[in-house]
Design goal:
Strand order of the largest sheet: 1-2-3-4-5-6-7-8-9-10-11-12-13-14-15-16
CATH superfamily: Carbohydrate-selective porin OprB
Helix content: 10-25%
CATH topology: Porin
Largest sheet: 16 strands, antiparallel, barrel
Oligomer: single chain
Shape: globular
Radius of gyration: 22 Å
Number of strands: 16
Length: 455
């Protein structure tokens, strides 16, 4: 028997993944065993960085990194002066390299991330201001601004541009039970929990394969859109309903969307119409002796016209349904309650007539602070299975006279190593059995290495 029954990947490929991934993990784990990483605790003890977090940008489902985890937690003095005036400035930068260890080929037109050595660089400046100082906005309000510069050697993997990534106001009322945000931002970062567990961004399939993106939801890494979202919480702030409306990303793809929205502040883009998203959920954040739990169910309705592969021409609307569940199972250190073992599972579906990938399942097992001496590291094992629409397969077959794939599976192992305060080194290894739609291509084994820097 040549294939493993669960994944359909060769035993040799799985052996390669295991050997190389274990090597990466061992390299990433290099540290003096006798000395634990207590750099954030020391920063909180010796500076006032903890109180600066009050002004971190709000609204995203994943919190902005703590000010204590930056190269200069106190900002050499100016950060305190700005805080006293209601301001906070932060900078985040990253450099990523992706390379297919199985079938890299620099002599062919690049079709997926890593087929040739693929590089990405990104830096952004985030500025917030406490609008509560201006009585008109209420007791808990914030102005958020973010400018972004990004470069990609492969345009199928992202943008090459400088633009405003966010310009918005977030207000909270009734003891934070009612929260509104409006302005320009990527509304996808406010829903779903995209960055938890497995990510397509570090695999051969790239960002185009995400069903949230396919449905037209503006997601992180691309240009923002004008948006409004409203959250209503129960009295214990656990049950919620989250509704949003925004301009859809362009049905012609993120490069076309970027061309028509050069600054990131364009109100309209040709062909992009209103998109609505609603999510109902229950979320319990980790506290001492209380494990985290997050269940959410959501729906998207996009009024834009999309190519209908079933009839061969564009027709109105696109939509998506999703259900996701994230659970924490352990808490080795109650003083750092986010540490522990988690699982995250997502099930997504979009119409097969209007999308290339019409359904997927994503599963991740991950640990934050996997070792007592490494409380800020993170290790992740992920799996995703994506199905290709029958109508898209037929259209591809007619146009290319080749047989497209019917599904694609990816397994990923990654380790994020906290080198020092403000610096992370992340290595991931992803095996994808079918990295492109057509023609059928041997499986890819993409090594992704990223350096993250926070100032």
């Amino acid at each position: 028997m040549n294939n493993l029954p669960c994944f359909g990947t060769s035993r040799k490929a799985v052996s390669n993944i295991t050997a190389i991934a274990l090597g990466l993990a061992l390299v990433s784990l290099w540290t003096p065993a006798a000395k634990a990483d207590d750099s954030l605790a020391q920063a909180a003890k010796n500076t006032e960085c903890s109180k600066y977090d009050k002004y971190r940008m709000r609204g995203s489902e994943t919190a902005i990194i703590t000010t204590c985890d930056t190269l200069s937690p106190d900002g050499d003095g100016p950060r305190k002066a700005m805080y006293d005036s209601g301001w906070l400035v932060q900078n985040y930068s990253s450099i990523t390299e992706l390379y297919d260890l199985n079938h890299a080929d620099s002599n062919v037109t690049q079709r997926y991330s890593g087929q040739r050595p693929t590089f990405q660089a990104n830096t952004n400046f985030t500025i917030t201001y406490d609008l509560s100082r201006i009585g008109f906005f209420g007791e808990n309000a914030q102005l958020g601004m973010q400018a972004n510069w990004t470069q990609n050697s492969y345009l199928g993997n992202g943008l090459r541009d400088t633009y405003i990534n966010q310009l918005s106001i977030e207000q909270e009322f009734d003891s934070s039970r009612v929260r509104v945000e409006y302005g320009f931002y990527s509304i996808g970062s406010k829903f779903y929990g995209s960055v938890l567990g497995t990510s397509t961004a570090a695999t051969a399939l790239g960002p185009n394969s995400g069903l949230l993106y396919e449905a037209g939801v503006p997601v992180g890494g691309f240009k923002p859109t004008p948006a409004f979202d409203l959250r209503l919480y129960s009295t214990d702030l656990r049950f919620y309903n989250h509704f949003g409306v925004t301009r859809s990303s362009s049905p012609q793809g993120f490069q076309h969307d970027s061309k028509e929205n050069p600054s990131g502040l364009s109100m309209t883009v040709p062909g992009s119409k209103l998109l609505y998203i609603d999510e109902i959920g229950y979320r319990r954040l980790p506290k001492a002796d209380e494990l985290s739990r997050w269940l959410r169910v959501g729906a998207v309705y996009n009024t834009s016209d999309y190519m209908n592969y079933q009839v061969g021409h564009p027709t109105d609307s696109n939509h998506m349904y999703y259900v996701a569940y994230t659970q924490q199972y352990s808490q080795p250190d109650p003083s750092l309650p986010v540490r522990g073992i988690y699982t995250d599972i997502k099930i997504d579906q979009v119409p097969s007539s209007r999308n290339v990938y019409d359904k997927d399942v994503l599963f991740s097992l991950y640990s934050i602070g996997p070792f007592d001496t490494r409380p800020y590291d993170m290790v992740t094992l992920g799996y995703q299975h994506k199905w290709i629409s029958q109508w898209a397969r037929q259209a591809l077959s007619r146009s290319t006279q080749l047989a497209p794939i019917d599904s694609s599976e990816t397994m990923t192992l990654s380790y994020a190593f906290h080198v020092l305060r403000g610096l992370y080194f992340n290595n991931s290894l992803s095996y994808t059995d079918n990295p492109i739609l057509v023609p059928q291509h041997p499986g890819s084994l993409v090594l992704s290495s990223t350096v993250y820097l926070s100032l």
